Amino acid sequence: MPTTANDSKVFVVDQQFFNYSVPAEVLLTPSATECAEPMIHERQNLEQNLIFHLSATRTAVEGHLRAMPISAPIPKPFQELRKLEFDWDGHRSEPPTEALIRKGEELWSILEELGLPELPSVKAGADGFLAFSWLQKYPAKHLEISLYERELDDFYCDWYLRKEEDTTEGSSDYPWGEMREVVIQYFNVRK
Amino acid sequence: MTAEIQLPSKCRKVLEEIDKRNRKSDESIQLLDIDENCVLHIFILRDQFEQASDKPNQSTFGNKGLSVCVEGGRFGAIDLKSELKNFRARTGKDFVGIAHIKARTLLEENAFFKFVLVHDPYPFVNKDGSLEEQPTNHAQIVCDKDPTGKRVKLMELCEWTLHPSDFNDNDS
Q1: Would an 8 Å CB–CB cutoff place A79 in contact with chain B?
Q2: pLDDT at B8 (0 to 100)
Q3: pLDDT tens digit string along A7-42?
Q4: How large a percentage of chain A has pLDDT more than 90?
Q5: Does residue A183 sit within a domain?
Q6: pLDDT confidence of residue A72
Q7: What is the mean pLDDT of residues B151-166?
Q8: CB-neighbour burial class of residue A166 (10 A; exposed 0-12, middle 13-18, buried 19+)
Q9: Are A136 and A160 in contact (CB under 8 A)?
Q10: Is A126 at the interface with chain B, CB within 8 A?
Q11: Same domain assignment for residues A53 and A86
Q12: How far apart are CA B30 and CA B97, in angstroms?
């Protein structure tokens, strides 16, 4: 942390990767002298600029991720999720991020490996989550797993299982060690 | 009701956003008096309709500010098909049905849901940047819809007002 005016530094992010330039007014650490002065308005401007440019950077990362080739064939639910745009639900919701969709595909491939008799429907939820729903035996049996993006590259999930009138619920950071057990419990699959 | 309920920050943002739009109309934000005989209608997208369960998917209920059309109480009766047609036309989205939750049911379960119902007839700036009007009976059920079990409960409480099989695309 700089303590004198001489220590003041401007952090320049190498933006060649995104072909995007950060303007000079984005200063992450102004000098101590500057800090000492009452520049609330300027500070607010800096914060707004920072938020704006962080958001733009995230959008650039998203765009880059979307442009990256995916080696395996994309399962249909995820093809549909990738088509979603802002206001996809008619209520001005953002689409799921590419990172969340990729994490969802990872979860899907784990489910496929389990050789389950039924794969779930996968839907986007407003406010950034994916719902994996097993409803073929509804209302007698019902399993839901929701995958959420807490923040960049930080995911968690929760589940709801109803079977034989017993309901269990829980949540965990993702990857989630108990997932196989919960799914196997739903299907009575021996693995 | 808001004084008793501690809303998480995401939900408070929904209220602030409504309040911001409301201020342009020089009124104070209105929490809707919930007449227990009111019915809260929710438009359902084709992709949200699960044929296996004959219900909307739980993801339908994930929005921190869940849009509803209020019928009953100080609001009049709704012509369902024309409401759906208008909503399809206004949003350009493939809505195919309307589900509803009875206000009485929600009120009875409010210790669990911890919701506030906010009247939101205020226009908003749409994705094209133009001001869009909202119906006078539009409200939002504001509450944290996580975890999944909460959305499942909403899914199970809702009933069809207009089932997708009773709606013909040609109607629109």
Answers
A1: no
A2: 87
A3: 444 444 444 444 444 454 444 444 555 555 566 777
A4: 48
A5: yes
A6: 67
A7: 96
A8: exposed
A9: no
A10: yes
A11: no
A12: 28
CA distance B33 to chain A (A): 23
- CA A37 to chain CA mean position, Å: 39
What residues of A are in contact with residue B147 (Cβ under 8 Å)?
A: 146, 158, 160, 169, 171
pLDDT band at A177 (very low <50, low <70, confident <90, very high): confident
Q: Tokens in use for B41?
A: 């209608």
Q: B152: which chain A residues are within 8 Å (Cβ-Cβ)? A: 142, 144, 160
Residues A102 and A25 in one domain: no
* pLDDT tens figures, A88-107: 999 999 999 999 999 999 99
- Where helices occur in chain A by DSSP H, the ranges are 32-36, 40-67, 76-83, 98-113, 179-187
pLDDT digits (tens, 9 = 90+) for B84-122: 999 999 899 999 999 999 999 999 999 999 999 999 999
Q: Is B21 in the A-facing interface, judged by CB distances under 8 Å?
A: no
> Is the CB of A136 less than 8 angstroms away from the CB of B67?
no
Tokens in use for A25? 């007014």
The whole domain housing A100 covers 76-187
Place of tokens 């909403």: B154
Q: What is residue A31's predicted lDDT score, i.e. its pLDDT?
A: 52
Same domain for A140 and A80, yes or no, is yes
Residue among A163, A158, A129, A162 at smallest CA distance from A145: A158
Q: Which residues of A touch B10 (CB under 8 A)?
A: 127
Cα–Cα distance between A186 and B50 in angstroms, integer?
Answer: 19
3-class secondary-structure state, position A66: helix
Same domain, A95 and A170: yes
Which pair of tokens denotes residue A191?
A: 């693995």
